[in-house]
Amino acid sequence: MVVQQHRHRGGTAVAAMTAGAVASLMWATSGCSGSGAAAEDEKGEAVAVLRAAADVLVDAGSSKARTSMEMATGGTRVTIRGEGTYDFKRQIGELRVLLPQDPSGAVEHRPITELLAPGALYMKNRGAGVPDDKWVRVDTATLSDGNLVTGGATDPLAAAELLRGASEVTYVGESKVDGVAVRRYRGTADIARAAQLASAHNRKVFAAAAKGFAKGEVPFEAYVDEQGRLRKIRHQFSFVNSAAGGSGGRSSGSGAEVAVASTTLLYGFGTPVKAQLPDAEDIFAGKIAEG
Question: How far apart, in Å, are the Cα atoms of 39 and each of 31, 43, 47, 55, 171?
Answer without folding.
Answer: 12, 6, 13, 25, 11
